């Protein structure tokens, strides 16, 4: 039985909590043993806002051991896996320390505040022999998994153009401090950057236009072009200033030599050039549930974490940093090594 400690009980911590409960109810050999957050007394009785709804507004944590200090939790619990859903700027130091002490680590995205620290996480995981996976959940989201299969199979030939979009209202608290979160590009846009890196490989260079709206938050709106030698035109846009009743949206449109694939956040539509369009059946499950199940299965059966390797997540962070550098230079192309 794998024993899990959850660090962080904000929106993502609650999302992970919900899915651990589901995995336990389904009979997976895992047990969420403890929850740690410096503000746990306050957070357990309040609602945490996010892009999607958590399973409940107020959580009954009476069945779990609660901690305000990570070291106290580690000293008092016999844990196998630590789930880091803490703020971005804490990820690298926390993950490296835990890996060195023999814990498997699931860490929320972005992997770290700086790519140099992300590569330290990679090195530490390799040296420790423990498993590390980053929560780049789109790799497990059925609508994006379908696109990955189309790209890899070559069913419609090579991709010629792609557009990815993600938008929502503004987050709160530390997210709006660029020094802590990296702003909208690093915290939110990294989902699409990571998917582009996963689908098509690391681009040779990027050009980004960005705009700041909220004081101190970095770039709140951005649009990036990704250059590939084969000439495909790839763009992604992000905006976390969409207030009012907008809510949240993510989607893509990718054109191939023999057809196009479009995702509106819930439904995939395939449009072959030489045949009628159709809507393939995809799983209704969210990527959060599927990524946690995948990681725990890898730990239980000692299998490699192939779908989302730490190295690939660190590469995606390097691309994001190049985008931020380009935005600082008003869209100048920035080459990637």
From TrEMBL:
Keywords: Oxidoreductase
Keyword check for Cell division: no
Record-linked InterPro entries: Gfo/Idh/MocA-like_OxRdtase_N, Gfo/Idh/MocA_oxidrdct_glycsds, GFO_IDH_MocA-like_dom, NAD(P)-bd_dom_sf
Residue ranges occupied by any GFO/IDH/MocA-like oxidoreductase domain in the UniProt entry: 144-261
SUPFAM superfamilies in the record: Glyceraldehyde-3-phosphate dehydrogenase-like, C-terminal domain, NAD(P)-binding Rossmann-fold domains
Ranges where the Gfo/Idh/MocA-like oxidoreductase N-terminal domain occurs: 2-135
The protein's name: Dehydrogenase
Organism of derivation: Paenibacillus forsythiae
């Amino acid at each position: 039985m794998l024993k899990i400690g959850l660090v962080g009980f904000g929106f993502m911590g609650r999302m992970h909590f919900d899915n651990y409960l589901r995995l336990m109810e389904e009979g997976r050999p895992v047990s969420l043993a403890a929850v740690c957050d410096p503000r746990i007394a306050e957070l357990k009785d309040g609602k945490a806002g996010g892009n999607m709804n958590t399973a409940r507004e107020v959580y009954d944590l009476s069945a779990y051991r609660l901690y305000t200090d990570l070291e106290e939790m580690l000293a008092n619990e016999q844990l196998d896996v630590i789930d880091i859903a803490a703020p971005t700027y804490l990820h690298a130091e926390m993950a490296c320390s835990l890996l060195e002490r023999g814990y498997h680590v699931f860490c929320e995205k972005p992997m770290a505040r700086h790519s140099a620290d992300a590569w330290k996480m990679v090195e530490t995981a390799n040296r420790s022999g423990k498993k590390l996976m980053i929560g780049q959940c789109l790799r497990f989201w059925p609508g994006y998994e379908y696109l990955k299969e189309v790209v890899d199979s070559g069913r419609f030939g090579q991709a010629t153009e792609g557009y990815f979009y993600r938008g929502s209202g503004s987050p709160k608290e530390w997210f709006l401090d660029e020094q802590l979160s990296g702003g909208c590009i690093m915290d939110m846009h990294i989902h699409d950057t990571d998917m582009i890196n996963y689908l098509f490989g690391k681009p040779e260079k990027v050009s980004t236009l960005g705009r700041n709206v909220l004081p101190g938050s970095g770039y709140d709106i951005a649009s990036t072009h990704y250059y590939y030698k084969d000439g495909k035109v790839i763009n992604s846009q992000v905006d976390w200033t969409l207030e009012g009743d907008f809510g949240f949206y993510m989607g893509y449109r990718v054109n191939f030599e023999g057809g196009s694939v479009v995702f509106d956040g819930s439904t995939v539509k395939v449009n072959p050039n030489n045949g009628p369009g159709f809507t393939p059946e995809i799983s209704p499950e969210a990527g959060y549930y599927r990524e946690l199940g995948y990681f725990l299965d890898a730990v239980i059966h000692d299998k490699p974490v192939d779908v989302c390797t730490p190295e690939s997540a660190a590469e995606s962070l390097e691309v994001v940093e190049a985008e931020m550098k380009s935005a600082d230079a008003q869209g100048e192309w920035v080459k990637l090594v």
